[in-house]
Amino acid sequence: MGLSMTERGNALPQHVAIIMDGNGRWAKAQGLSRVEGHRKGAGRVRDVIEWAADAGIKQVSLYAFSTENWKRPKLEITALMTLMATLLPLEIERMNERGARLLTLGDTSKLPWIARKALDKTCKATESNSSIDVILCLNYGGQQEILEGVKRFCASYTDDVSKAEALKHLNEDTFRSLLGRDHILPVDLLIRTGGERRISNFHLWDAAYAELYFTGRLWPEYNQSDFHAALDDYAGRERRFGRTSEQLKGEVADE
Ligand code: IPE
Ligand code: IPE
Ligand code: MG
To answer: Which of 121, 157, 189, 219 would bridge 166 by S-S if both were Cys, CB 3.0 to 4.6 A apart?
Structure first.
Protein backbone atom coordinates (compact mmCIF):
# COMPACT_ATOMS: atom_id res chain seq x y z
CA MET A 1 0.00 0.00 0.00
CA GLY A 2 2.03 3.01 -1.25
CA LEU A 3 5.61 3.63 -0.26
CA SER A 4 6.91 2.25 3.02
CA MET A 5 8.03 4.60 5.74
CA THR A 6 11.72 4.04 4.98
CA GLU A 7 11.16 4.54 1.25
CA ARG A 8 9.54 7.88 2.02
CA GLY A 9 12.53 8.73 4.22
CA ASN A 10 12.91 12.45 4.80
CA ALA A 11 9.90 13.09 2.67
CA LEU A 12 7.57 12.02 5.44
CA PRO A 13 5.61 15.06 6.61
CA GLN A 14 5.95 15.85 10.31
CA HIS A 15 2.68 17.73 10.59
CA VAL A 16 -0.31 16.67 8.48
CA ALA A 17 -3.37 18.93 8.68
CA ILE A 18 -6.73 17.61 7.50
CA ILE A 19 -9.89 19.46 6.51
CA MET A 20 -12.39 16.67 7.08
CA ASP A 21 -15.10 17.68 4.61
CA GLY A 22 -18.02 15.91 2.98
CA ASN A 23 -20.01 14.46 5.88
CA GLY A 24 -23.21 16.22 4.82
CA ARG A 25 -22.98 15.22 1.15
CA TRP A 26 -22.19 11.64 2.09
CA ALA A 27 -25.27 11.49 4.34
CA LYS A 28 -27.50 13.06 1.69
CA ALA A 29 -26.37 10.51 -0.89
CA GLN A 30 -27.31 7.73 1.55
CA GLY A 31 -30.67 9.29 2.35
CA LEU A 32 -29.50 9.94 5.92
CA SER A 33 -29.49 13.08 8.06
CA ARG A 34 -26.41 15.32 8.15
CA VAL A 35 -25.91 14.28 11.78
CA GLU A 36 -25.57 10.64 10.67
CA GLY A 37 -22.86 11.87 8.30
CA HIS A 38 -21.00 13.45 11.21
CA ARG A 39 -21.37 10.25 13.23
CA LYS A 40 -19.89 8.21 10.39
CA GLY A 41 -17.16 10.82 9.97
CA ALA A 42 -16.20 10.50 13.64
CA GLY A 43 -15.18 6.89 12.92
CA ARG A 44 -12.69 8.13 10.34
CA VAL A 45 -11.19 10.49 12.93
CA ARG A 46 -10.40 7.45 15.02
CA ASP A 47 -8.92 5.66 11.98
CA VAL A 48 -6.78 8.51 10.73
CA ILE A 49 -5.09 8.79 14.13
CA GLU A 50 -4.06 5.13 13.78
CA TRP A 51 -2.88 5.54 10.17
CA ALA A 52 -0.88 8.66 11.01
CA ALA A 53 0.69 7.02 14.08
CA ASP A 54 1.58 3.92 12.03
CA ALA A 55 3.18 6.09 9.33
CA GLY A 56 5.41 7.80 11.92
CA ILE A 57 3.83 11.24 11.64
CA LYS A 58 4.51 13.47 14.66
CA GLN A 59 1.47 15.74 14.52
CA VAL A 60 -1.92 15.49 12.87
CA SER A 61 -4.32 18.41 13.11
CA LEU A 62 -7.98 17.83 12.38
CA TYR A 63 -10.39 20.62 11.46
CA ALA A 64 -13.52 19.66 13.37
CA PHE A 65 -15.35 22.98 13.76
CA SER A 66 -14.47 26.33 12.22
CA THR A 67 -15.29 29.80 13.53
CA GLU A 68 -17.65 30.01 10.53
CA ASN A 69 -19.45 26.76 11.40
CA TRP A 70 -21.45 28.66 14.07
CA LYS A 71 -23.56 29.84 11.11
CA ARG A 72 -24.96 26.31 10.70
CA PRO A 73 -28.42 25.32 11.98
CA LYS A 74 -28.48 25.24 15.80
CA LEU A 75 -29.61 21.60 15.79
CA GLU A 76 -26.62 20.51 13.71
CA ILE A 77 -24.21 22.43 15.98
CA THR A 78 -25.72 20.85 19.09
CA ALA A 79 -25.53 17.40 17.51
CA LEU A 80 -21.88 17.91 16.52
CA MET A 81 -20.92 19.05 20.02
CA THR A 82 -22.86 16.22 21.66
CA LEU A 83 -21.24 13.70 19.35
CA MET A 84 -17.79 14.94 20.25
CA ALA A 85 -18.57 15.08 23.96
CA THR A 86 -19.85 11.50 23.87
CA LEU A 87 -17.27 9.88 21.62
CA LEU A 88 -14.03 11.60 22.64
CA PRO A 89 -13.63 10.14 26.16
CA LEU A 90 -14.27 6.66 24.70
CA GLU A 91 -11.02 7.05 22.75
CA ILE A 92 -8.79 7.61 25.79
CA GLU A 93 -7.75 3.98 26.16
CA ARG A 94 -6.92 3.57 22.48
CA MET A 95 -5.04 6.87 22.44
CA ASN A 96 -2.99 5.85 25.44
CA GLU A 97 -2.14 2.53 23.77
CA ARG A 98 -0.94 4.43 20.69
CA GLY A 99 0.93 7.07 22.65
CA ALA A 100 -1.34 9.77 21.23
CA ARG A 101 -1.67 13.08 23.03
CA LEU A 102 -4.76 15.20 22.48
CA LEU A 103 -4.28 18.96 22.07
CA THR A 104 -6.71 21.61 20.91
CA LEU A 105 -6.38 24.66 18.71
CA GLY A 106 -9.01 27.40 18.63
CA ASP A 107 -11.07 29.17 21.26
CA THR A 108 -12.56 26.22 23.11
CA SER A 109 -13.88 28.50 25.89
CA LYS A 110 -16.86 29.28 23.63
CA LEU A 111 -17.85 25.61 23.25
CA PRO A 112 -20.75 24.15 25.23
CA TRP A 113 -19.88 22.91 28.68
CA ILE A 114 -20.26 19.19 27.83
CA ALA A 115 -17.77 19.54 24.99
CA ARG A 116 -15.28 21.44 27.16
CA LYS A 117 -15.58 18.81 29.87
CA ALA A 118 -14.90 15.94 27.43
CA LEU A 119 -11.95 17.80 25.94
CA ASP A 120 -10.44 18.57 29.35
CA LYS A 121 -10.82 14.97 30.42
CA THR A 122 -9.27 13.54 27.25
CA CYS A 123 -6.45 16.08 27.10
CA LYS A 124 -5.51 15.42 30.74
CA ALA A 125 -5.74 11.63 30.38
CA THR A 126 -3.40 11.65 27.36
CA GLU A 127 -1.05 14.51 28.28
CA SER A 128 2.03 12.38 28.97
CA ASN A 129 1.86 10.54 25.62
CA SER A 130 4.59 11.40 23.16
CA SER A 131 4.33 9.30 19.96
CA ILE A 132 1.92 11.54 18.10
CA ASP A 133 0.04 14.77 18.81
CA VAL A 134 -3.57 14.89 17.71
CA ILE A 135 -4.56 18.55 17.46
CA LEU A 136 -8.32 18.91 17.38
CA CYS A 137 -9.17 22.28 15.85
CA LEU A 138 -12.39 23.55 17.37
CA ASN A 139 -13.87 27.00 16.99
CA TYR A 140 -10.68 27.60 15.04
CA GLY A 141 -10.21 30.32 12.45
CA GLY A 142 -6.90 31.36 10.92
CA GLN A 143 -7.89 35.02 10.59
CA GLN A 144 -9.06 35.19 14.19
CA GLU A 145 -5.81 33.53 15.31
CA ILE A 146 -3.75 36.17 13.50
CA LEU A 147 -5.88 39.00 14.95
CA GLU A 148 -5.33 37.59 18.45
CA GLY A 149 -1.58 37.61 17.75
CA VAL A 150 -1.74 41.27 16.72
CA LYS A 151 -3.66 42.11 19.90
CA ARG A 152 -1.08 40.29 22.03
CA PHE A 153 1.68 42.20 20.28
CA CYS A 154 -0.03 45.53 20.98
CA ALA A 155 -0.41 44.56 24.62
CA SER A 156 3.29 43.66 24.81
CA TYR A 157 4.61 47.19 24.80
CA THR A 158 4.17 49.24 27.90
CA ASP A 159 5.79 52.42 29.16
CA ASP A 160 8.93 50.42 29.92
CA VAL A 161 9.12 48.61 26.59
CA SER A 162 8.64 51.11 23.79
CA LYS A 163 6.69 50.33 20.66
CA ALA A 164 9.88 50.87 18.62
CA GLU A 165 11.75 48.35 20.78
CA ALA A 166 8.92 45.79 20.51
CA LEU A 167 8.75 46.27 16.73
CA LYS A 168 12.50 45.66 16.45
CA HIS A 169 11.99 42.14 17.81
CA LEU A 170 8.96 41.33 15.68
CA ASN A 171 9.69 38.81 12.95
CA GLU A 172 8.07 35.68 11.50
CA ASP A 173 9.32 33.53 14.38
CA THR A 174 8.39 35.86 17.23
CA PHE A 175 4.99 36.52 15.65
CA ARG A 176 4.40 32.78 15.38
CA SER A 177 5.09 32.58 19.12
CA LEU A 178 2.52 35.33 19.68
CA LEU A 179 0.02 33.11 17.87
CA GLY A 180 0.70 30.48 20.54
CA ARG A 181 1.99 28.03 17.95
CA ASP A 182 5.38 27.27 19.51
CA HIS A 183 4.34 23.71 20.31
CA ILE A 184 2.90 23.17 16.83
CA LEU A 185 5.16 22.17 13.94
CA PRO A 186 4.76 24.06 10.66
CA VAL A 187 2.15 22.36 8.47
CA ASP A 188 3.94 20.20 5.90
CA LEU A 189 0.93 18.65 4.20
CA LEU A 190 -2.62 19.98 4.16
CA ILE A 191 -5.21 17.46 2.96
CA ARG A 192 -8.83 18.38 2.16
CA THR A 193 -11.40 15.72 1.46
CA GLY A 194 -14.80 16.30 -0.14
CA GLY A 195 -13.67 17.86 -3.41
CA GLU A 196 -13.59 21.58 -2.53
CA ARG A 197 -10.36 23.36 -3.33
CA ARG A 198 -10.17 25.95 -0.61
CA ILE A 199 -8.52 26.41 2.76
CA SER A 200 -11.64 27.68 4.59
CA ASN A 201 -9.68 29.69 7.16
CA PHE A 202 -7.54 26.74 8.32
CA HIS A 203 -3.94 27.31 9.52
CA LEU A 204 -3.57 30.53 7.52
CA TRP A 205 -0.17 31.52 8.93
CA ASP A 206 1.29 28.05 8.44
CA ALA A 207 -0.41 27.44 5.11
CA ALA A 208 2.24 29.78 3.67
CA TYR A 209 4.42 26.83 2.64
CA ALA A 210 2.22 23.82 3.29
CA GLU A 211 1.88 21.38 0.41
CA LEU A 212 -1.81 21.22 -0.55
CA TYR A 213 -3.57 17.98 -1.45
CA PHE A 214 -7.22 17.83 -2.50
CA THR A 215 -9.23 14.67 -2.92
CA GLY A 216 -12.82 14.16 -3.98
CA ARG A 217 -13.32 11.37 -1.46
CA LEU A 218 -15.98 12.29 1.09
CA TRP A 219 -14.69 12.17 4.66
CA PRO A 220 -16.91 9.28 5.89
CA GLU A 221 -15.42 7.12 3.11
CA TYR A 222 -11.81 8.21 3.54
CA ASN A 223 -9.61 5.15 3.85
CA GLN A 224 -6.01 4.20 4.53
CA SER A 225 -5.14 3.97 0.81
CA ASP A 226 -6.40 7.52 0.34
CA PHE A 227 -4.21 8.66 3.21
CA HIS A 228 -1.17 6.84 1.83
CA ALA A 229 -1.84 8.29 -1.63
CA ALA A 230 -1.55 11.77 -0.09
CA LEU A 231 1.70 10.83 1.68
CA ASP A 232 3.11 9.37 -1.55
CA ASP A 233 2.16 12.50 -3.45
CA TYR A 234 3.86 14.61 -0.78
CA ALA A 235 7.00 12.45 -1.03
CA GLY A 236 7.26 13.42 -4.69
CA ARG A 237 7.01 17.17 -4.09
CA GLU A 238 10.03 19.42 -4.19
CA ARG A 239 9.76 21.93 -1.36
CA ARG A 240 11.80 24.84 -2.59
CA PHE A 241 10.87 27.57 -0.10
CA GLY A 242 11.82 30.19 -2.66
CA ARG A 243 15.07 28.63 -3.81
CA THR A 244 15.72 27.00 -7.17
CA SER A 245 15.68 23.30 -7.85
CA GLU A 246 19.40 23.44 -8.73
CA GLN A 247 20.22 25.01 -5.37
CA LEU A 248 18.35 22.25 -3.55
CA LYS A 249 20.25 19.57 -5.44
CA GLY A 250 23.54 21.28 -4.59
CA GLU A 251 24.31 21.82 -8.28
CA VAL A 252 24.92 25.51 -7.74
CA ALA A 253 26.27 27.35 -4.70
CA ASP A 254 23.99 29.55 -2.62
CA GLU A 255 26.40 32.49 -2.95
C1 IPE B 1 -17.41 18.55 7.41
O2 IPE B 1 -18.46 18.05 6.67
C3 IPE B 1 -17.69 18.55 8.88
C4 IPE B 1 -17.85 19.87 9.49
C5 IPE B 1 -17.71 21.02 8.88
C6 IPE B 1 -18.15 19.89 10.90
P7 IPE B 1 -19.63 18.98 6.16
O8 IPE B 1 -20.71 18.98 7.18
O9 IPE B 1 -19.11 20.32 5.80
O10 IPE B 1 -20.10 18.20 4.87
P11 IPE B 1 -20.59 18.83 3.50
O12 IPE B 1 -19.54 19.79 3.02
O13 IPE B 1 -21.89 19.51 3.77
O14 IPE B 1 -20.73 17.65 2.60
C1 IPE C 1 -14.38 23.41 6.79
O2 IPE C 1 -15.47 22.74 6.20
C3 IPE C 1 -14.44 23.26 8.27
C4 IPE C 1 -14.34 21.90 8.79
C5 IPE C 1 -14.08 20.83 8.11
C6 IPE C 1 -14.53 21.79 10.20
P7 IPE C 1 -16.77 23.55 5.74
O8 IPE C 1 -17.61 22.58 5.02
O9 IPE C 1 -17.37 24.28 6.87
O10 IPE C 1 -16.12 24.61 4.73
P11 IPE C 1 -16.79 25.65 3.72
O12 IPE C 1 -17.57 26.62 4.55
O13 IPE C 1 -17.67 24.87 2.79
O14 IPE C 1 -15.65 26.27 3.01
MG1 MG D 1 -18.42 21.11 4.06
So the answer is: 157
Rounded distance from Cα 240 to ligand 1 centre (Å): 33
Amino acid letter for position 223:
N
Question: Which atom of ligand 2 is nearest to 20's Cα?
Answer: 5
Residue 166 lies in a domain: no
CA distance 187 to 206: 6
For residue 84, how far is its CA from the centre of ligand 1 (angstroms)?
Answer: 15
| Sequence-ordered list of residues with C-beta below 8 angstroms from that of 227, at least 6 positions apart, any chain | 48, 51, 52, 55, 191
CB atoms within 10 A of CB 98: 19
H or E element that contains 140 = strand 132-140
Residue closest to 17 by CA, chosen among 164, 165, 182, 135: 135
Model pLDDT for residues 19-34, shown as the tens digit of each residue: 999 999 999 999 999 9
61 contacts 206 by C-beta, under 8 angstroms: no
Number of structural domains (the chain) is: 1
Q: Which ligand is nearest to the CA of 68?
A: 2
Q: How far apart are the first and last CA of the chain?
A: 42
Q: Residues with beta carbon < 5 A to ion ligand 3?
A: 21
CB distance 109 to 128 below 8 Å: no
List, for residues 193-220, the tens digit of each pLDDT value: 999 999 999 999 999 999 999 999 999 9
Q: What CATH number is attached to the domain comprising 131? A: 3.40.1180.10
